[in-house]
Amino acid sequence: MTASALRLGPSLPRARGPLSDGVIKRLVTGAKLPPAATKGADPYGDDLQLALDVCYELHYRGFAGVDPALEWDPDLLRTRRALESVFLTALREDATRHLIVDEALAGLLVEPVNGSGVTHFLRDEGDLWQIREYAALRSIYHLKEADPHAWLLPRLWGAAKAGMAAVEFDEYGGGRAERIHARLFADLMTDLGLDSAYGRYLDAAPAQMLATVNLMSLFGLHRALRGCTVGHFATVEITSSPGSARLAAAMRRAGAGPAAEHFYDEHVEADAVHEQVVRHEVIEGLLREEPQLEADIAFGVDATIHVEDRFAEHVLGAWRAGSSALRDVPDSGPGGGMRRAS
Predict the structure, then answer these.
(1) What is the pLDDT of residues 91-119, one digit of tens each?
(2) What is the DSSP string of 4-54?
(3) Rounded distance between C-alpha atoms, residue 314 and residue 305, angstroms
(4) CB of 215 within 8 A of CB of 94?
């Protein structure tokens, strides 16, 4: 292993409990992992969600100072599987609402007259500090936008594969590095005075945010859950265009800057097209080939809505109380001082 390989990737986060502490110590010192003590662990809590996030990140960019070979460490994989089991069991119990795809998607296809979500709040009354917090939180995903869904491509064929590849090609900038959506989000962060380094705000991200990203990795890394990945992807694409329109308006109202506006303007147009491709080529194509996956697709939709609703409840609850939605507000360097002046 070269020294340059060890330098790549973000810094490891701080542990939030015994599960995440055990995983992080394994990466740092090679300490033996005890059997994952997941009995009684909160499936949506900080400790389990951070432990999962760290395990999953080994399949993306890894961490600075961590041997890339640990991606396939048998002990870590056994621990990850135990953590996933707790999370997935809770999701199946708490989120399952539908068995039919059309019924699962029906509520997403109608824009509410009086919406009350995070993007509605930011459009109508959000302050700049709240917009900056939202961007910092979403950076946990957007700086690797489309990557979790890319795991799906080798698991599809025919129309579903072609449709998925077309959407991913757009997400990756249509062959132009400067238009890759993760790059556009980094530019948005720069406009907002945030640090755009990959993983910079992981320590500040609460469990509710980690769960939204872990869900993508959970689905994407398991071929058996490919239908769930399609359901997740469909939910993201269907809700992205109207949500992005609200966020573009919020950026303009707050004077966030041209790159901040551009990121969401880009998604208004692109994701309106992507929605049609995902519904009529990816979903319909997959169901023609594997109709037995319909309940999995529906579950992917339901689970996505479930974790996003929990995230929205946390963020709006904090903001309406005049508090930060971050676990700890960065106090120095780019991105510091997000809260309102007191």
Answers:
(1) 999 999 999 999 999 999 887 767 889 99
(2) HHHH-SPPPPPP-SHHHHHHHHHHHH-PPPPP---TT--TTSHHHHHHHHH
(3) 14
(4) no
Cβ neighbourhood burial of 70 (10 Å; 0-12, 13-18, 19+): middle
DSSP notation for 117-147: SHHHHHHHT--HHHHHHHHHHHHHHHTTTTH
Is 284:297 a contact under the CB 8 Å cutoff?
Answer: no
Check residue 230 and give left, alpha or beta (phi > 0: left; psi -120 to 50: alpha): alpha
Cβ count near 181 (within 10 Å): 20
Contact between 103 and 56 under an 8 Å Cβ cutoff? The reply is: no
CA distance 110 to 122: 20
The Cα–Cα gap between 41 and 89 comes to 12
Has this prediction a pTM greater than 0.85?
A: yes
Which one, of 288, 170, 305, 171, lies nearest residue 228 by Cα?
305
Residue-wise pLDDT for 194-226, tens only, equals 999 999 999 999 999 999 999 999 999 999 999
Cα–Cα distance measured from residue 77 to residue 69, given in angstroms and rounded to the nearest whole number:
12
Determine contact, residues 196/189, Cβ cutoff 8 Å.
Answer: yes
Contact 307, 92 (CB under 8 A): no
Quote the DSSP letter at residue 322: T
Which of 139, 181, 149, 192 is closest to 282 using CA atoms? 149
The DSSP element (H or E) to which 250 belongs, if any, is: helix 226-254
